[in-house]
């Protein structure tokens, strides 16, 4: 199994225990990538790795915390120990609990602001800090970060979440411009409302879905596979000349 040229390459999925990260890890595993699944939830990461293995792929799992530098370094140590190096990184983890109290700049609890910046934004700095040297040692690599439609649309709530996601765009362009000539491509995907298992299981799912449909120009909301397909493309040689971009994948929610 595996696409030509991809077989055996190593990807770290930082936040692959559920939702978009898990779906993307499965897709990359099915394409022949060797996948290190990292997540705050160690058993969730192990569950994704098991599904990849059951589908005939190669995967391992590690518990780690995007908020803790030593823990992020440990994620990459594990990739080297398990698979001998790193060719690609999918940054997808985010503290989706903090966003519930991410009110507005007048009322915001500063602990929520700090937590969001620490995990959702600084966490991606750390994964790239430890991942890029490993990719350079292999002659280059590919990074896909996860932004959000929230980075582009004005919203009356969740300012910390939106600011962190907007910052990911700047980080993406920084990495692409600093290391592009050395063979590192760094892009971001900005999903719109994507119906993960967590979102579908919310008690107000019908209202969530109806509200989301009003914001987009598509007959349906997003599925995790929509984002996984985009990430797989950005990781592939078909995207060899795509660098420094934030790609909105959201049923036309954001048009620019
Ligand atoms: N689902 C959507 O509608 C949507 C829309 C736009 C952007 N996004 C982004 O997509 C990404 C995935 O979201 P999802 O909807 O699949 O959510 P999810 O909650 O299913 O997945 C997030 C994963 O990140 C992990 N995580 C949380 N904190 C962590 C930490 N400190 N260290 C390591 N891992 C941690 C969680 O355990 C979880 O497995 C996030 O970056 C999110 O902001 C999602």
Automatic annotation (TrEMBL):
Transmembrane helix among keywords: no
UniProt entry keywords in alphabetical sequence: Oxidoreductase
Enzyme class: oxidoreductase
Glycoprotein found in the keyword field: no
Enzyme Commission code(s) on record: 1.1.-.-
PROSITE patterns per the UniProt record, alphabetical: ADH_SHORT
GO molecular function (one): oxidoreductase activity
Pfam family, one: adh_short_C2
Similarity comment text for this entry: Belongs to the short-chain dehydrogenases/reductases (SDR) family.
Listed name of the protein: SDR family oxidoreductase
Organism classification: Bacteria, Bacillati, Actinomycetota, Actinomycetes, Mycobacteriales
């Amino acid at each position: 199994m595996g696409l030509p040229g991809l077989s055996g390459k190593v990807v770290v999925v930082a936040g692959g225990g559920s939702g978009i990260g898990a779906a993307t890890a499965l897709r990359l595993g099915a394409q022949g990538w060797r996948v290190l699944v990292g997540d705050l939830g160690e058993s969730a990461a192990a569950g994704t790795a098991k599904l990849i293995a059951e589908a005939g792929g190669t995967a391992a799992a590690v518990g780690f915390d995007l908020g803790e530098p030593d823990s992020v370094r440990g994620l990459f140590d594990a990739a080297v120990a398990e698979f001998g190096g790193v060719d690609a990184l999918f940054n997808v983890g985010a503290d989706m609990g903090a966003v519930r109290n991410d009110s507005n700049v007048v009322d915001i609890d500063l602990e929520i602001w700090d937590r969001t910046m620490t995990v959702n934004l600084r966490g991606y700095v750390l994964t790239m800090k430890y991942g890029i040297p490993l990719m350079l040692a292999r002659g280059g690599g590919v990074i896909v970060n996860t932004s959000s439609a929230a980075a582009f649309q004005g919203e009356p709530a969740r300012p910390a979440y939106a600011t962190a996601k907007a910052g990911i765009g700047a980080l993406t362009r920084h990495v692409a411009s600093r290391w592009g000539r050395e063979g590192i491509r760094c892009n971001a995907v900005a999903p719109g409302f994507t119906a993960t298992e967590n979102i579908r299981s919310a008690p107000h799912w019908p209202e969530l879905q109806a509200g989301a449909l009003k914001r987009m120009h598509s007959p349906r909301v997003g599925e995790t596979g929509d984002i996984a397909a985009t990430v797989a493309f950005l990781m592939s040689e078909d995207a060899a000349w795509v660098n420094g971009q934030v790609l909105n994948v959201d049923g036309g929610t954001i048009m620019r």
